[in-house]
Write a structure and sequence with these properties.
By secondary structure, the chain is α+β, with helices and mostly antiparallel strands. The protein contains 4 helices and 3 strands; from the N terminus they run αββααβα. It has a single domain, classed as BolA-like (GMP Synthetase, Chain A, domain 3), CATH 3.30.300.90. Helix 1 packs across helix 2.
Length: 81
């Protein structure tokens, strides 16, 4: 799997204003900005992302995914810092 393929899978299941994925084919790092994260705790945000991956996580096709999740307002504030 490539970073572009993983990004496409996530984007198909979660509307994102910003989505960037990179990694080595087994260990992935993602930055996601989505209004879907509004009012959600960190674990709930991660669960939403993992839900988009479905069987890819269960079958170990995506072995590890580290992520930073932001609401649009959090992303805007982080961009100004």
């Amino acid at each position: 799997m490539t970073a572009d393929e993983l990004q496409t899978i996530i984007a198909a299941g979660l509307p994102c204003e910003h989505l960037h994925v990179e990694g080595d084919g087994r260990h992935w790092y993602a930055t996601l900005v989505s209004a879907e994260f509004e009012g959600k705790r960190l674990i709930q945000r991660h669960q939403k992302v993992y839900a988009t991956l479905g069987e890819k996580i269960k079958t170990d096709e995506v072995h590890a995914l580290s992520m930073k999740t932001y609401t649009p307002a959090e992303w805007q504030a982080a961009s100004k810092a």
